[in-house]
Write a structure and sequence with these properties.
Low-confidence stretches: none
Shape: globular
Largest sheet: 8 strands, mixed
Distance between the termini: 37 Å
Bound molecules: adenosine-5'-diphosphate, aspartic acid, magnesium ion
Length: 430
């Protein structure tokens, strides 16, 4: 038997009983003859609670100190899980990300894993221990500072460990039975996908399906590690993320038929905000100045729209979306450019939501956008912005319309299950 890498999310570690339950699952894998390495998240909503606490102390806490604070959450669970395992008669060793050899770049709050040097993990395994690693954190190669990987980052810790330890598969245990055609909290009739390709899962994750951290899917694809997403509350088989949209099952057969489903799912995201730079002079270099400044501030943008300039004024508006957590930094950065660029005003709107339709089959099936927009119209949802990729169509809508938009699109593309099969076992959805 080889090495099994498992990840347990905060919703699976909400209290002492949950920790004991997880410890039993971990020791079951060890009893089956495997070497077991586990990445754990902070308990329940404790990362959010730490963030709330920080906000009460300071409106814009220094990023270094925020990372110091947040990494404490995962340290608590790793030690408690190790204790619960030892109570079951097995030995466990817990390690912080830094001790486990998770080496990152130096960007606090959204560090990238550069390398994993799992020397201490391997020694602990050789000594017969179960290894528990604090997820979502690492240490910067350059600055030696402690970093975090961004919200949901324990998935990425797990996949990076699986790659470094050459595990056959990375098991992600969460509070639903796998990856569904939509968030089961919004669409109870969502269907579980048995398999989804890396590309589709990348788009789902990038579009807000927080069941997997985007970086974890990128990492898994690069290292060709299958991810098995499943529930820590049931023994059902989950969803395997593996394979590519270039596999033969996506080839069109006679009359445009295809073995694989056309649409993988509908994702939504309420975590973005929209900034509009009003009255930008329509001349060469203005957009470059705006977006270079945002890039220098390490802000990742999503959709960008530039309107046609009004002929009378030769002024244009540029709108873009970004994570709302970067909203304040972006507004401050842009305000500093006002005189240089000469724009008129800055508008900020965080009452938006993004709804995305994802599926490899849309490459070969015309009319998908028309059907999507019709479904939104029938649900009474107004579209603010649109963007597309090869296998995705996204729209920005009013935040209050997100649920209706997701449900409408899900039904329009025949994704509803006949009987409700989606169970949400835990978590608060926060
Ligand atoms: P964990 O604490 O295990 O990391 P998360 O809350 O990060 O769990 O992710 C699991 C949640 O992701 C589910 O409870 C569900 O509400 C949400 N989710 C969003 N989209 C999907 C989807 N397409 N399939 C499954 N779950 C989804
Ligand atoms: N605890 C972190 C978070 O809540 C990381 C994770 O759960 O994956 O985002
Ligand atoms: Mg998560």
């Amino acid at each position: 038997m080889g090495i099994v890498v498992q990840k347990y999310g905060g919703s699976s570690l909400s209290d002492a009983d949950a920790i004991k339950r997880v410890a039993r699952r971990i020791t079951d894998a060890k009893k089956a003859g495997n070497d077991v390495v586990v990445a754990v998240s902070a308990m329940g909503d404790s990362t959010d609670e730490l963030l709330d606490l920080a906000a009460q102390v300071s409106p814009l806490p220094p990023a270094r100190e925020l990372d110091m604070l947040l990494t404490a959450g995962e340290r608590i669970s790793m030690a408690l899980v190790a204790m619960a395992i030892s109570d079951l008669g097995f030995t466990a060793r817990s390690f912080t990300g830094s001790q486990a050899g998770v080496i990152t770049d130096d960007v606090h709050g959204k560090a990238k894993i550069l390398d994993v040097t799992p020397g201490r993990i391997r020694s602990a395994i050789e000594e017969g221990h179960i290894v528990i690693v604090a997820g979502f954190q690492g240490v910067s190669q350059q600055t030696k500072e402690i970093t975090t990987l961004g919200r949901g980052g324990t998935d990425t810790t797990a996949v990076a460990l699986a790659a470094a330890l050459e595990a056959d598969v990375c098991e992600i245990y969460t509070d639903v039975d796998g990856v569904f055609t939509a968030d089961p909290r919004i669409v109870p009739t969502a269907r579980k996908l048995d398999r989804v390709t890396y590309e589709e899962m990348l788009e789902l994750a990038a579009s807000g399906a927080k069941v997997l951290h985007l970086r974890s899917v990128e990492y898994a694809r690069r290292h060709n590690i299958p991810i098995h997403v499943r529930s820590s509350f049931s023994t059902l088989e989950g969803t395997t993320v593996t394979g590519s949209i270039n596999d033969p099952e996506f080839d069109e057969g006679p009359e445009g038929t295809m073995e694989a489903p056309i649409i993988a799912g509908v994702a939504h995201d309420r975590s973005e905000a929209k900034i509009t730079v009003v009255g930008v002079p329509d001349k060469v270099g203005e957009a470059a100045a705006i977006f270079n400044a945002l890039a220098d501030a390490q802000i990742n943008l999503d959709m960008i729209v530039q309107n046609v300039s009004a002929a009378a004024t030769n002024l244009t508006d540029i709108s873009f979306t970004l994570p709302h957590t970067d909203g304040q930094t972006a507004m401050t950065t842009l305000a500093g450019l006002r005189d240089q660029i000469g724009f008129e005003n800055l508008l900020y709107d965080d009452k938006i939501g993004k709804v995305s339709l994802i599926g490899a089959g849309m490459r070969s099936h015309p009319g998908i956008s028309a059907k999507f927009f019709t479904a939104l119209a029938e649900a009474g949802v107004n579209i603010g912005m649109i963007s597309t990729s090869e296998i995705r169509i996204s729209v920005i809508v009013d935040q209050d319309d997100v649920d209706r938009a997701v449900q409408g699109a899900h039904t329009a593309f025949d994704l509803d299950a006949d009987e409700v099969e989606a169970v949400v076992y835990g978590g608060t959805g926060r």
